[in-house]
Amino acid sequence: MEPSPLELPADTVQRIASEIGCHPTDERVALRLDEEDELKHFRDYFYMPKMRDLPPIDLSLVNKDENAIYFLGNSLGLQPKMVKTYLEEELDKWAKMGGYGHEVGKRPWITGDETILGLMNDIVGANEKEIALMNGLSVNLHLLLLSFFKPTPKRYKILLEAKAFPSDHYAIESQLQLHGLNVEESMRIIKPREGEETLRIEDILEVIEKEGDSIAVVLFSGLHFYTGQLFNIPAITKAGQAKGCFVGFDLAHAVGNVELHLHDWGVDFACWCSYKYLNAGAGGLAGAFIHEKHAYTIKPALVGWFGHELSTRFKMDNKLQLIPGVNGFRISNPPIFLVCSLQASLEIFRQATMKALRRKSILLTGYLEYMIKHYRSNDRAETKKPVVNIITPSSIEDRGCQLTLTFSAPMTYVFQNLGKRGVVCDKREPDGIRVAPVPLYNSFHDVYKFISLLSSVLDSAETKK
Prior knowledge:
The chain has helices at residues 9-20, 27-35, 82-97, 121-124, 137-148, 166-178, 183-186, 201-211, 233-242, 262-265, 310-313, 336-352, 354-376, 411-420, 444-463, and strands spanning 69-70, 131-133, 157-161, 187-190, 215-221, 246-250, 269-272, 287-290, 388-390, 403-407, 423-424, 426-428, 432-435.
């Protein structure tokens, strides 16, 4: 299945079609791609929702016993089957020994987060001492900004992309207000060019070069939640730091989706959630990164007991011995049940590897793009049919697994009727539907079936006119 380094997904699809003697859009191509997929067995590690259990389903349109087409891993990943086992282990330990569970077992409750830190290393490309698992994403972002954003009369701005996720936007606004700064003057937002949906890297770098002396922190998404654009993290980091800025990233939509090398790229700080591509469940345990170069120079503005060195933590003498680096930012003891669900997923990532997952993801999303363009592109001669526009960048280097689609047909109608047919995706204002085939548990045949259902919905939208 693996394409050669120079082979684009479209070329792979056409090559396989030629090998088996059919059209590239034939179902047999999807089946062959699945047959050759070395990661396909990981699908069995997750619970896949059934059609009959989906709230918007129309049972007259589906086979109720079939699996749903779940393309919503960019919002909430599926449940790993081992979650229940790990939760039951801790519930059983709590029932049988009470407080002794703090110090014994596979996950002593005092160090539960630390027991799984090693599983995050390769996913974010960092050393274990540069990672902390704690809180929720927005809490971690606030804690990091309190330490990295130290405005001066000359350097007081925070740079971010247009339409950043609301939690980031609100966090930045409130941090600026906390320092008594004018939000409109201090929040520097980069917008795409007129008539374009995504940002050009040269425009981002130009703003940093021209205005960097007044920017204290560059804070970007690793991957934009709406457009699906993957930003050039190393280039932005290098440019920002060259102008004396701290550079951080919200990796909510990048972690577990694309390969990250935070340490090698020299990123100053980052944070992420775990319930999207990391499959840790709603409200899962979030993560934070601070580069080791800041371990002894950047300290938490707000301190808690779990930022104290473990060796002397229980002396209870109220003399803080702060853990250097990001683990000194921990405030409270780890929520062990959230540790359990995250562990169940991270163990799967360890087996699959991000490199192999990214390889499959490129082909899987490329196949989706190929099929959409074949059937519903603006370029097709049959312009009377409803068309689909992909606003996510077409370049492999500039996207993860998500494609954001807009339609000539009413978006709400399309979304509702996909839901009736068992397609689980989501819509985002103003007019996008996000679909994310996830390499850990989605198949090429899922994509094939999605295209068939999408065509059925769009055909029905045409008859409604």
